[in-house]
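Key idea: predict the complex, not the pieces.
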Amino acid sequence: MAKIDIGPPDYRNFLPPVIKENYGKWKYHELVRPGVLKHVAESGDELYTIRVGSPRLVSVDFIRNICDIADKYCKGYLRFTSRNNIEFLTDDAANVEPIIEACRALGLPVGGTGRSISNIVHTQGWIHCHTPASDASGIVKAVMDDLYEYFERDDLPGKLRIAMACCLNMCGAAHCSDIAIVGVHRTPPVLDHEIIRKGAEIPSLVACCPTGAIRPDPKNKSVAVKEDKCMYCGNCYTMSPGMQILDAKNDGLAIMVGGKVSNARSYPSFSRLVIPFLPNNPPRWPEVTEAVRNIVETWVKHARKGERLGEWIERIGWERFFTLTNIPFSDKCIDDYIFSRETFRTSAAFKY
Amino acid sequence: MPEDRKTPQLDELEKGPWPSFVTEMKRAAAKSPAAEELLGLLERSYEDKIGHWKHGGIVGVKGYGGGVIGRYTDLPEEFPHLKEFHTVRVNHPSGWFYTTDALRTLCDVWEKHGSGLTNFHGSTGDIIMLGTTTDQLQPTFDELSEAGFDLGGSGSALRTPSCCVGPARCEYACYDTLDMCNNITHEFQDELHRPAWPYKFKIKMSGCPNDCVAAIARADCAVIGTWRDTIIIDQEEVKAYAESGMNIQREVCDKCPTRALEFNAETKELTVIPEDCSHCMHCINVMPKAIRPGKDRGATILVGGKSTIVKSAFMSWVIVPFMKMEPPYTEFKDLIRRIWEWWDENAKTRERLGELIYRVGMGTFLREVGLPAVPQMIFRPRANPYVFWQEDEIKK
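Result:
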């Protein structure tokens, strides 16, 4: 029988020699060009990183292709980033151009460093999840096709991080991104009492509802939903497949903006909802790509150097953001859930 | 691929400059009937605008309570190879560094036993092997184990810890994130592989306050590198930045959130008011050659982060402003064990740590896990006098 609990392989065996030798002794880095970093160690050793976009959902042959590049130019080492980019690492400046050429030959973009739009972190969507309100890979492909130039240039006001989550579980920190594309349901669950009776633990199902919309229905040995209290989070559907939340006619996407995780300058912050609903319009989701492009271009045009999207909006004010982007404001953008009060303007100072 | 399979909507997503996941699915489909059917199922979702996967059932490998996500399509007659199409989560090495040998081995295992489709990587950090049948799970695991890999976390367990690139390639790293991630993952194998808690628990490690793994947003426990003393300024390099045309006053000093930096335009000297610095990283990010974190380095421990489901998204908040982070990380391990014990005892089903603390109060949490209250934990004190006094604080 195979050994269990051996844990992950030791990363030390996977570090290229130049990193092993200079581990913890890096002095500074430079952005050589979009997609290329140069790190210099105390010893004077240099390390070049070539950052490359990936669709994340890849075949084993794709992995073998990038291994071929790493074998040829990087002594058989490579790494991935937290945003699903591939990084080729070499201590030889002469390898940089050939690596870029090899990536181009595979159709892989080089970029995503510095003040650019990096790869979109995203979830499974219709490919492999049971609660999605939308696809994820398809929207990401459509948005990155549309914003491709911004991956390959690094002269934006600041870095811009986009995330895509196909439901409110938001696997992947969509809630603290410069722009978050989030799958949303808009109708209460449709109950299948047979499935609930057979498989659900009624008290847990009742308790799981954050707004208290689910009541026990002892007569039916099932539950009942007070529909006007439901805000379609889908938590109950995760608890029981008898609480069907997927709705082909009404599921779609919301756009949230202005979040970040870095502590630099301003505190980490949540993304805020500015577009409550856009339709699911596969295969290219034009309403979504257009909405994202509008926000990006308005920010690029108006923000000062060094301002991330949320920092720019906080400086000019959200009322100005809605004016400049021509995004219609409605009561749907005003919070009415648990932590709403802190978002209300308790001041008479604002702009027109 | 069968000649009659038409995927006009997905074909549309092979166009355009960004690399296409559809092309990748087709490459896998050339070798795997399940991957071929996945194209058909996804095309159907694009037509129907709805997902076609049922809730997961309990599947797994011997000795483990998690690491495999059961997945079954709701259209098994039409897509028989997707009747069972389970995900295997494989614990990635710290920092996502690989040798091509290791990656090729993973590819061979997955081509033999699964669909040949993968995610490099999943949101939590694992290598995701997407789609195989129940009877192939054990053989997949056996070969992975043989190759030195192990499963990641799933369900109400510790999820696979992850970390930033850290000292391997970043001069900002204030502690060894890769070592700590590797160390605690090995320490907590039981918590990772045998779900026994109220809900999931995530630990993420970032080497500095730039937080490149988004620990503060999505980890129940975020370990974020920092320093207690003063930033180190190299005046020669400051001059070089100034001479290269950088507007240091505007780009560095004016953007310092606490106005802790002063630039003398005549002497081209940059000075810091140490007690005013909040260790945010801005100046270091803009002038990496001229400014470095201080020498008294460690990490801030924050807890409570999670996404929207159920009671809104929470960001992690400070519970220990500064802790030295050196192997074997005993102080951290003791603390996290106390936190787990309290959470496990007190949380409702599917209640994350942050939601429990929000429900019962920070005061209770701090007393129960034995941490002193300090001002670094809050942005500002409460605006009401509704204090829960303890019995020994009241005159009898």
